[in-house]
Amino acid sequence: MTLEDARVLDAADPLAPFRDRFLLPDGLVYMDGNSLGPLTKAAAARARAVVETEWGEGLIRSWNSADWIDLPRRVGDRIATLIGAEPGTVLAADSTSINIFKLLAIAAGMRPDRGTILLEAGDFPTDRYIAEGFASLNPQKFGLLGHKIASGDITAPTPDVGVVLVTEVNYRTGARHDMAAVTQAAHDAGALVIWDLCHSAGAFPVDVAGTGADFAVGCGYKYLNGGPGAPAFAYVAPRHLDGLRQPLSGWMGHARPFAFADDYEPAAGIDALRVGTPPILSLSTLDAALDAFDGVDLAALRAKADALFDLFVANLPSGIELLTPTDPRKRGTQVSLCHPQAYAVMQALIARGIIGDFREPDILRFGLTPLTLRFEDVWRATTTLADVLATGAWDRPEFRARAKVV
After folding, report:
1. Nearest to residue 98, comparing CAs of 228, 241, 270, 274?
2. Average pLDDT value for residue range 177-184
3. Among 119, 100, 76, 302, which Cα is nearest to 206's?
4. Over the stretch 182-210, which tens digit does the pLDDT of each residue have?
5. Which of 75, 129, 133, 251 is most buried by its number of CB atoms within 10 A?
6. Among this protein's residues, is 124 annotated catalytic?
């Protein structure tokens, strides 16, 4: 495909007008929205309004006048529409790691006679770290069964497995699991499933309700564009909401937080997942960032991501290996490539205005975010990649020097 061919596709793209909702630096091709989404115009404006007006003028009154107190629920309901969840089942709060811990404790408590938490080897490390931390808690002190962590086939849990914790889209390869099939396999084995949607929510249609998912978590700063360290979210299926209780019993999760009672009584429904005072600045920015999805057909979003993928792969230079499955049903919306000098290659690309990222040990990642990415951008990225590889432009000391964040 030529540059002119790519521009023809851009001219016919029904999602092209949505790009104007974002603040994108001139001259850059940003393909790292699967790690940090770009700033939206609405989020920038909302941040100013919250700081200058709601906080600056309203002060503490804004907990009521601006309804800060219910923001976690309101943002959660907006995210629910992107992941196929029922109203009142999603809460925006805390981080992905903290939400995983809360949901693990809930799920494990619902399967008290099963002591194994099953994960898939190669999933994002924080999922395993949190599971290991949960399993290491003193069973006698915390009244737990005592859990162990196992890696194995998530489609065939053994009888001792109580909880399956799995990421829908693998952060390294971009490979995607069949949510319905994995969930059904877990249920058939008597286990519950927690889905990590960090590389799913906002990237393509997700259907947690339709697939029978028990629980889910996800972050707000990747495809949802909420900003660095934006609050995460947690989903609990309606059938599990009655009597919901989690171990991080902070005051905001109390049924009557401003009664300041000595004894803890969990709030009803999804509010039981609340812990501490919500971070209003970052939560408000995430709320406004979700405006970017207003009027967006998620099926069209996925269709464009697939077209961008096809263009990328068709123009892929020789000497580099594609890790992401080519079957659209088996992948998310990123391209992962393998090269022995992946880190240096990516730094050379960034120096030329093509921003992707690197993952150990030898993976280059390129996020395909259809609301901001054009076909011309993909053409530029693949053309530049081909030149960097053909000329050896990556082989310079400054491109090999590792930064703290990669």
Report:
1. 274
2. 98
3. 302
4. 999 999 999 999 999 999 999 999 999 99
5. 75
6. yes
Catalytic residue, chosen from 171, 221, 235, 312, is 221
Q: Rounded distance, CA 253 to CA 244, Å?
A: 11
| pLDDT score, position 142 | 42
Cβ–Cβ contacts within 10 Å for residue 387, how many?
A: 14
Closest Cα to residue 261, out of 247, 275, 251?
A: 251
221 catalytic? Reply is yes
Cα angle 30, 36, 41 (rounded to 5 degrees) comes to: 75
CB atoms within 10 A of CB 380: 17
- Of 222, 304, 331, 374, catalytic: 222
Residue 1: pLDDT band by 50, 70, 90 thresholds?
A: confident
Q: Of 365, 374, 375, 377, which one is the catalytic site residue?
A: 365
Which tokens go with 148? 């162990």
Q: Please state, in angstroms and rounded to a whole number, the distance separating the CA atoms of residues 282 and 100.
A: 20
CB-based contacts of 133: which residues, under 8 Å, 6+ apart?
101
Least confident of 132-136, 248-252, 349-353: 132-136
pLDDT of residue 141: 44
Whole-number pLDDT of residue 270: 98
User: Does the annotation mark 10 as catalytic?
Assistant: no
Catalytic residue, candidates 19, 41, 124, 178? 124
pLDDT for the residue numbered 331 = 98
Q: Are 140 and 170 in contact (CB under 8 A)?
A: no
DSSP 244-271: ---S---GGGBSSGGG--SS--BPSGGG
User: Residue 207 catalytic?
Assistant: no
E runs forming strands in 312-372 = 321-322, 334-338, 354-355, 357-359, 363-367
Model confidence band, residue 15 (pLDDT cutoffs 50, 70, 90): very high
Provide DSSP, 259-321. G--SS--BPSGGGGG--S---HHHHHHHHHHGGGGTT--HHHHHHHHHHHHHHHHHTPPTT-E
